[in-house]
Amino acid sequence: MRKTLNMNYNPNIHHRHSIRLKGYDYSHAGLYFITICVKDRECFFGEIIDDKIILNNAGKIADECWLQIPEHFPNVVLHEHIIMPNHVHGIIELKRINTITNQIANNVGTSHVMSLHNHDHNHNPNQFSKPIPGSIPVIIQQYKSSVTRFVNKINNSHFKWQSRFYEHIIRNDQSYELISDYIINNPKNWKDDDLFISQNLSRNI
Questions:
Q1: How far apart are CA 88 and CA 98, in angstroms?
Q2: Closest by CA position to 186, among listed 42, 89, 47
Q3: Which of 144, 28, 42, 149 minimizes the C-alpha distance to 86?
Q4: Tens digit of each residue's pLDDT (9 = 90 or more) over 156-171
């Protein structure tokens, strides 16, 4: 029997001042499981009907902006993702870039998940005060800004994200498989999700 992955959202953890690994370079090549939540868990993106997500216009914008991330960040490869009524889940892969030729390196000999080398605390650690181009925080900040701008433009609303986002470094194939299954099955398991909130509060836009 396959073990289930406990991916429940824990506000006591995810609302801390910083959930980043101290000294970890988030521009480093690897895969990351990302969760981004709407402010106050408001169901802004649609609703779940018959175990499927039905996106409204705002949800479609969130989806389109996610799919366009590689157009702005060539070092990014997108894997599974889902737009839920009040949050977004996705797996982002960062490819290594040859700093000499400025070309994305081919990861020959790897499977789904690249090995993450031990990081050097003195090797330009990624911090919010000094964002690194192409790093996870920069990618997510641009995504959030784009969605906010376009959603508020179409309906003159005051859509906002939570100020922080949650990420998990994917270190092996087993973790990758479990997280991918979790993303795919998220609509079916919506009422058991810690982010679940009554869809009576959803926005029909």
A1: 31
A2: 89
A3: 42
A4: 678 999 999 999 999 8
Its pTM stands at 0.72
- Long-range contacts of range 117-124, CB-CB < 8 Å, 24 or more positions apart? 117/28, 119/23, 119/24, 119/25, 119/28, 121/23, 123/25, 124/25
Q: What is the per-residue pLDDT for 103?
A: 54
**Cα(21)–Cα(116) distance, integer angstroms:** 13
| Residues forming beta bridges with residue 91, ordered by sequence position | 33
- What domains are there in the chain, each with its CATH number? 11-193 (3.30.70.1290)
Taking only the tens place, the pLDDT of each residue in 110-131 is: 333 332 333 333 333 333 345 6
Please give the structure tokens belonging to residue 58.
Answer: 């705002």
